[in-house]
Amino acid sequence: MSLSGLADAYLLIKTLHVVSATILFGTGLGTAFFYWSSRNSDDSTRLFAARTTVRADFLFTLPAVIVQPLTGMWLIARAGFDPGAAWLVTSYALYILAGLCWLPVVWLQIRMKRMLEAKLAGGEFDDAAFERMRRTWFWIGWPAFLSLIVVFFLMVTKPAW
78-104 in b/e burial notation, b at 16+ Cβ within 10 A? Predict the structure, then answer.
C-alpha cells in the first residue's frame, strides 16, 4: 500500500473510531435519559421505553463496544503510540470499567422489560423489586458515564504523565 493509501486508511479508521465513540457515548446518554424519563409514566409507556432502550443497546451500543477496541488497537499501532503509555493504560482500564458497568445495566434493562411485559399481560408484578432494579440501573450507569468522559479527555489530550 502506498504512503497515501496508508494515510487514507488511517483517517478512515480514525473517523470510524470517533464515530463509534460518539455512538457509544450518545446512545448511552440518550437511552438513559429516555428510560429514566419514563419512570413516572403509565405501564405501556414504561414498557415502550424499556423495549426501545434494550433494542438501542443491541443495535447501536454493542457494535460500538466491539468497534472501539479494534479501531483503537489499529490506530495505536499505525500512529506509533506506546501501547503501555499511562494515558492509554488508563483509557483501557476506564473502558473496561464502563463495560463492566454496562453488562449489568443491560441485564437489568432486560429484566425490567420482562417484568413490565408480564404485568401488562396480567401477570404478577413486584413494584419494590422493580424500583430496586431501576435505582441500581441508575447508579451503575454513573461510573460508566464518567469513565467514558475521562476516556474522551485522554484521547483528545494524550497527556504525557
Answer: eeeeeeebebbeebeebbebbeebbee
Residue that has been written with the C-alpha cell 428510560 in this structure:
35
C-alpha cell at 4: 497515501
Q: Which amino acid is at 14?
A: K
Write out the three cell numbers for 75.
490506530
Residue 104 C-alpha cell reads as 449489568
Q: 58: which DSSP letter?
A: I
What tens digit of pLDDT does each residue of 105-161 get? 999 999 999 999 999 999 999 999 999 999 999 999 999 999 999 999 999 999 998
The total number of residues shown for the chain amounts to: 161
Model confidence at 7, pLDDT cuts 50, 70, 90, reads: confident
CA end-to-end span of the chain, whole Å? 35
